[in-house]
Design a protein that fits this description.
7-stranded mixed sheet, 15 strands, alpha/beta, 426 residues, 4-stranded parallel sheet, binds zinc ion, TIM Barrel, Urease, subunit C, domain 1, 38% helix
Amino acid sequence: MTELSAEWVLPVDGPPVEGGLVRYEDGRIVEVATGRAERHFEEAVILPGFVNAHSHLEYANYAGFGDGMPFGPWIATHVARKSVLAPEEMLAVARLGALDSLRSGITTTADYSFSGAAATAARERGLRAIVYLEVFARDPADAERQWDERRRQVGESELVRIGISPHAPYTCSLETYRFCLSLGVPVGTHLAESANEVEWLLHGAGPLEAIAGWLVPPTGERPVASLEPVLGPELLCAHCVEVAGDEIELLARRGVPVAHCPRSNALLGCGVAPLTELRGAGVTVGLGTDSPASTPSFDVFEELRSAIAFARAREQRAEALPADEALALATIGAARALRLDAEVGTLTGGKRADLTVVSLAGSPYHPVEDPAAAVVFGGSPDRVLETIVDGQTRYRRQDEEQWQEARSIASAVRARMLGSPQLQRQ
Ligand SMILES: [Zn+2]
């Protein structure tokens, strides 16, 4: 039996516990109670490990690539730079992504993986993950070939499950989606991310013409309508910025889970997803950081603050997204979106012991008035003291050498991506 206590425990499925204690054994939470354990964290909060509803660990060192470009040329730059990497380099970057995630208090991630390296990295670092292997295919036979090839290279483990990701409705046909959904593994896609996607699907025009060779022919319909026949609870949809009215109703009616990625959507100039309308309609929403290819980091705290700022600004109401509800989006909401809520997302007896300890020492939010607001507004990866997955400590602030080493290897890979002759020919 292990016990940890802190000034506050935020179970998320119930009120905050002052002077709280979490007891766990064999990787599962036994209970949340009050009391002081031998391992006590002063001026700190214990909360459920964050569940990241959308990531790409393999892009951990892509920060700022193509910053400020329109979506079409941005994605073309991204693909060109990625193409110079060898498999071991992709793995080195994914390792950094897994460690960056743990360092940000993330204990579960839903990762869309280009090469499969994310699965290896998550398994090695002890990060719980569903790794959705990406396919890009007009013809489902191509999707099957890509899936078979990548699936053979990656293994599952206690913590890591393998799924499939038909990339988006502009790169995959409906038949490809049907093939993916027939496999009986988790399925995730990108949906309605940008106006450029809408323009391509409706008219075969716009900035995505820059990558027309990789795209499916225009469907003549908007993104949600393009996927209408396959929308259901087993298709996790990242972004959903370009959705309105009937489309939101359809997502709700079909039980389609949505990964909301406010920083990525804003920084790529895609817009602000209608979070309030999605939640109001009853859509299951989880918060996702996306990757440093579009956002600067896997920093969930920044993502939480952005989600709140954009929702309140859009609604012109401070109550549009309270801190505790935002925190729920990054824990139990995301766990529901991944259909892992029976196992993770709250500090509840019987669930897996996935915990994050956040220090508030010296923060403007200490002494604490509202512990959820203190964590959301006052938290940062630099304040994560410890991240525990399945009862095992996977990150500890005082021993960061492993993270620093991973960062320096990934920096060397980045230097090659920036300097490669192949890149300069693009
Ligand atoms: Zn993505």
